[in-house]
Amino acid sequence: MAYSKTENFSRDLAQLARLAKALAHPVRIRILQILADRNACLCGELVDSLPLSQSTVSQHLKELEKVGLIHGEIEGPKTCYCLNLPVLEKAMISFSKLFSGICRCSFQGGKK
Predict the structure, then answer these.
(1) 95 and 16 in contact (C-beta within 8 Å)?
(2) Integer Cα distance of 13 and 94 in angstroms
(3) pLDDT tens, the chain, 112 aa long
(4) Range of the domain at 23
(5) Phi-psi bin for 43: left (phi > 0), alpha (psi -120 to 50), beta?
(6) What would you measure as the largest C-alpha separation in the chain, in angstroms?
(7) Which residues contact 66 (CB under 8 A, 6 or more apart)?
(8) H helix intervals, the chain
(9) Number of structural domains the chain divides into
(10) How far apart are CA 89 and CA 39, in angstroms?
(11) The domain spanning residue 104 has which CATH number?
(12) Of 12, 34, 60, 95, which residue is least crowded by CB atoms under 10 Å?
């Protein structure tokens, strides 16, 4: 069995990779969009907004929560989910720095 060697990379780079992996599914991106559009914490409305079963939506929510992009609060028998804005802002800055560095290197090398 092969193991990833994330310990050989900086903590920031490993976190950026975890964020990228969490965003690597269109359902998760759509969940973030829904939460941003509604500007509120949502419970069952997320399932109603997606063409997926409740258990599938829950699995995607778990992945987003695991990396901190969203957080859930238990309200009675339901969990309500909200965007974690400080983590999202940090992710935006990290991805921006990554792509700016990549693009700068590419353009300096004469490639477009």
Answers:
(1) yes
(2) 9
(3) 556 677 789 999 999 999 999 999 999 999 999 999 998 888 889 999 999 999 999 999 999 999 999 999 998 888 999 999 999 999 999 999 999 988 877 666 555 5
(4) 10-108
(5) alpha
(6) 59
(7) 22
(8) 11-22, 26-38, 45-49, 54-66, 85-108
(9) 1
(10) 15
(11) 1.10.10.10
(12) 12
Question: What is d(CA 36, CA 29) in angstroms, rounded to the nearest whole number?
Answer: 11
pLDDT at 40: 87
Is residue 4 situated within a structural domain?
Answer: no
Token reading at 112: 């477009």
Please report whether residue 5 resides in a domain. no
Strands (E), 6-101: 70-75, 78-83
Take residue 81 and report the two structure tokens written for it.
């989910």
Tell whether 1 is covered by a domain. Answer: no
The pTM of this model reads 0.85
Determine the Cα–Cα distance for residues 43 and 50; give it in Å rounded to an integer: 13
In this structure, what token pair is assigned to residue 91? Answer: 């992710």
